[in-house]
């Protein structure tokens, strides 16, 4: 028996199929979820993938936050269901307040697309347990609204509680405060990050490395061990 990982498709989503493939490569059963459908089809975890949902109108993730599927995801995430938000998915998670802070336009005002080096800061979440704290990985980064911001009190709380999950290395690509690339909620079941681990899961494509596969093997092991 394996775990079922759902991947949501919004209008304007780009990376849903990549996330589904990553889940399959990790050994999970990938399940497509449609934004207008409240039914999560009995999945054990959810991925909110990258893209430009609803064309990023108003601001990135602002409209997706009100999609019918998000009503169920918010409820289930608060009850402990693992949720991973990648790029636009991270933006959606901040709009729902499942994660704190907000995402602004990159400080240089340009779209950026490159391989990005990261340091794993928290290897104890549902999505990062297959990494080690301090481990350095490289995954693709592609965004224009990738600057993570929050007030000083929130930033201090994230640092003090170990909720910074990933930090940029070798240069900050978008002006994110304290070089933060990804964060987690207090329970460790909800994680959001701007870089794209689903594009680094097999040697043939992406970075040519498999540094991102650990997100999907981490959650699979957690779910299988809990079943």
Automatic annotation (TrEMBL):
Part of the phosphoribosylformylglycinamidine synthase complex involved in the purines biosynthetic pathway. Catalyzes the ATP-dependent conversion of formylglycinamide ribonucleotide (FGAR) and glutamine to yield formylglycinamidine ribonucleotide (FGAM) and glutamate. The FGAM synthase complex is composed of three subunits. PurQ produces an ammonia molecule by converting glutamine to glutamate. PurL transfers the ammonia molecule to FGAR to form FGAM in an ATP-dependent manner. It is found in: Cytoplasm. Part of the FGAM synthase complex composed of 1 PurL, 1 PurQ and 2 PurS subunits. It comes from the Bacteria. The gene is purQ. The active site is at 87 (nucleophile), 196, 198. Its EC number is 6.3.5.3, 3.5.1.2. This is Phosphoribosylformylglycinamidine synthase subunit PurQ. Transmembrane segments: none annotated.
